[in-house]
Automatic annotation (TrEMBL), chain A:
Pfam families: ABC_tran, TOBE_2
Xref: SMART domains: AAA
Keyword annotations from UniProtKB, A to Z: ATP-binding, Hydrolase, Nucleotide-binding, Transport
Similarity remark: Belongs to the ABC transporter superfamily.
Enzyme class: hydrolase
PANTHER family linked to this entry: MALTODEXTRIN IMPORT ATP-BINDING PROTEIN MSMX (PTHR43875), MALTOSE_MALTODEXTRIN IMPORT ATP-BINDING PROTEIN MALK (PTHR43875:SF3)
Protein name, per record: sn-glycerol-3-phosphate import ATP-binding protein UgpC
All copies of domain ABC transporter, residue ranges: 4-234
Transmembrane segments: none
Enzyme Commission identifier(s): 3.6.3.20
SUPFAM superfamilies, per the entry: MOP-like (SSF50331), P-loop containing nucleoside triphosphate hydrolases (SSF52540)
Xref: InterPro entries: AAA+_ATPase, ABC_transporter-like_ATP-bd, ABC_transporter-like_CS, ABC_transpr_MalK-like, ABC_transpr_MalK/UgpC-like, Mo/tungstate-bd_C_term_dom, NA-bd_OB-fold, P-loop_NTPase
UniProtKB/TrEMBL annotation, chain B:
Protein name listed in UniProt: Trehalose transport system permease protein SugA
Species classification: Bacteria, Pseudomonadati, Pseudomonadota, Alphaproteobacteria, Rhodobacterales
Annotated Gene Ontology cellular component terms: plasma membrane
Native source species: Roseinatronobacter ekhonensis
CDD domains recorded: TM_PBP2
Pfam annotation, one family: BPD_transp_1
This protein's encoding gene: sugA_2
Amino acid sequence: MGRITLDKITKKFGDVEVIPPLDLTIEDGEFVVFVGPSGCGKSTLLRLIAGLEDVSGGEIRIDGSDATMVPPAKRGLAMVFQSYALYPHMSVRKNIAFPLRMAGMSPAEQDRRITAAADVLNLTDYLDRRPGQLSGGQRQRVAIGRAIVREPAAFLFDEPLSNLDAALRVGMRLEISELHKRLQTTMIYVTHDQVEAMTMADKIVVLRAGLIEQVGSPLELYRAPRNLFVAGFIGSPKMNLIDGAAADKHDCKTIGIRPEHISVSPESGDWKGTVGVSEHLGSDTFFHVTCEGIAAPLTVRVGGEVDVKYGDTIWLRPGPEQIHRFDQNGLRIA
Amino acid sequence: MATKASRSAARLMMAPAVILLLGWMLVPLTMTIWFSFRSYLPLRGGDLGAAGFDNYVRFISSSAFWPSIQTTLILVGSVLVITVVFGTLLALLLDQPMWGQGVVRILVIAPFFVMPTVSALVWKNMFMDPTNGLFAHLWRFFGAEPVSWLSDASLPSIVMIVSWQWLPFATLILLTAVQSLDGEQLEAAEMDGATKLKRFFFIILPHLSRAITIVILIQTIFLLSIFAEIFVTTGGAFGTRTLTYLIFQRVLESQNIGLGSAGGVYAIILANIVAIFLMRIVGKNLDN
């Protein structure tokens, strides 16, 4: 079981309030991702849940019982750190065994669990090596192994993939998602990368300056961002946000349209513009188009390869159902 | 150093330093070995001709020889243990965030800047003097009989003085090592259920092992030749005569340069035996 409830928790460092009162419930077995720009308090929030920082107020409940003052080791949570935090002087086997040894488990039971974990994570051949002799991805797996053997109520991940190269990151993303499907254990995952959030999460928590901007499934956030911040943060390339005359037509302060929801035509459309830089990815093409009457250049995404050159004039038409409208306060108008 | 020309140029430019250092070491060494085979008594006729191994036999068969070796090893060993243990604890303490950290650190380092002769004099006269010393006052305050440190507990007194001098060195090196420990490792260990004590023994101490090795090696080199502290305090009396001090007495007090030189060669051998043992025991920490 791993149901975690945060009840009006706050965190202050001196006079600076990093996290204003915050409520959140994480259901058992859920994969929750905290996402936000750096300095938004997402790592602090994770450390509060882990018990590595004391809360300044409020209550943390794990499976219904108050864990606010419980020391980290007793909360039944396991954490994977950004730097992996492996013990460099111990072999992989001893690293993974460390939490079991500290719990005073019998050597036979330790062995059984280590073998099982090594099997799941493809570490069997590396058990006698030192962390220094492993690649980044392998170290990452050892860190996850050390978390798995404890059979925790929930896993906490603190930006675990940010030290890996792009190709490895995609691979580990899949491995962690698969691990979650197999173990069905609650996982809380902190990242600043919205792609990781979109691909892995059951539920995304978007944070800004310690405040929860929106909570929802990846597609809920994609389809109906609650405000301008979430609209700009979720989705890649970013949503085009347009003020002025174009927005007035829709009775709002700002309209947002995602690059993939704009259609391109050489003859007619709503907005006439000049093509700037275009990025050809093979599967997609991104144009940056400067339109008449719109201040910032718009990003447009077109599937496949398209023959449009720098300086060409084209017409754009936003999908009418896919325009997001926002009021003066940046909040979504339904 | 890519090309042949730059390599030979590099050799040429390093040559003066290498030759100077080599000469600095070789000339005294050769002279010591040479004198150790001569009967050389400056006040009784100077160089009186070859002596064979007489000096070596006399030095080793003197009743003062083995006690001096023992004293040397006890002195070096005790100072090493005290400085490493207290150095580690002090380093952990100084690593804690506290008010006035910078000032406290400088104060802790300060004894290292005091010259050995001066610090020995300060200890002898201000702390350990049986009538006017601070310790004597402290003892009397609690109604105890003051200890005459340098005659009744002479070797422990010198261990105390030398440890006080070298503790800052150990603390400084170990403090930098403590600071280089990744905080996330300690947090991971905390989450893994390690108590504070277990975190110290399983995480911090292994991390410090390399720094401790360096402290031990460097200190041993300097501690084997401790002289000023003994000269100023006990003058080698009350069982504080180390091998270094014995050699000094043979050369200057007995005016027998041949005998002293033979002792010097024994000191070289002792230093090498200690070094070999040390490298065996702790040197493997420097490998990986």
